[in-house]
Design a protein that fits this description.
It contains six helices and seven strands, in the order ααβαβαββαβαββ. A seven-stranded mixed β-sheet has the order 3-2-1-4-5-7-6, sandwiched between helices. The protein is globular. It has 199 residues and is α/β, with parallel strands linked by helices.
């Protein structure tokens, strides 16, 4: 890595509006998944939340126990403005890897791909730590390799399976059928469950 992907790096990206990952609306695969959820009381975490479009959608659908976290101070400032006066959402400026708590559902949307690949094993173990018994990690991962040095960083199902299987049960890991047009054919949809006995 030629740059350290730390708080300063990401805050600088936000300060200069270098937000190439921001699609401007909640990701279609996550919207479709959220639409199938019946229990509005579950605890939900969105790491690397950015503009928190999925969180806004969750609130609109009546979910009331949402936590979002981002390492970039500017991103958190904007999210706090967006959700000022709203109940049901907790906004944290901090490092995901230092977060404490337990969640029923963690939503993955362009967070994994933003991390230095060397952190991927730590990401997996941290996700297992944060999930409640029977909790799930759900979202999309890039199923492609990028020409230029990341972020974003790509990967493949062949790489991801042994990585995640160490701490999580893979319920679904398959080509995403409802990606946004710009990412068609380049994403995997995942539903990963906390392994029994990992509490």
């Amino acid at each position: 890595m030629s740059e350290t992907l730390d708080q300063g790096y990401w805050n600088n990206r936000w300060q200069h509006h270098q937000l190439g990952w921001d699609i401007g609306y909640p990701s279609t695969p996550l919207v479709d998944y959220i639409n199938g959820l019946e229990n509005k009381e579950i605890s939900i975490l969105i790491p690397g939340c950015g503009n928190a479009y999925e969180a806004a959608y969750l609130l609109e659908q009546g979910f009331n126990n949402i936590t979002v976290i981002d390492i970039a101070e500017k991103a958190v400032e904007l999210v706090k403005e967006k959700f000022a006066g709203k109940e049901g959402i907790r906004i944290i400026h901090g490092d995901f890897f230092e977060l404490e708590g337990r969640y029923d559902l963690i939503l993955e949307q362009t967070f994994f791909c933003a991390l230095d690949p060397a952190l991927r094993p730590t990401y997996v173990s941290k996700m297992a730590e944060l999930l409640k018994t029977d909790g799930q990690l759900v979202g999309v991962l890039f199923n492609t390799q990028f020409q230029r040095q990341g972020p974003p960083f790509g990967g493949s199902e062949a790489e991801y399976r042994p990585l995640f299987e160490k701490s999580l049960d893979i319920c679904v890991m398959e080509p995403c059928r409802n990606s946004i047009p710009e990412r068609q054919g380049n994403e995997l949809f995942i539903i990963l469950k906390k392994k029994n006995g990992k509490d």
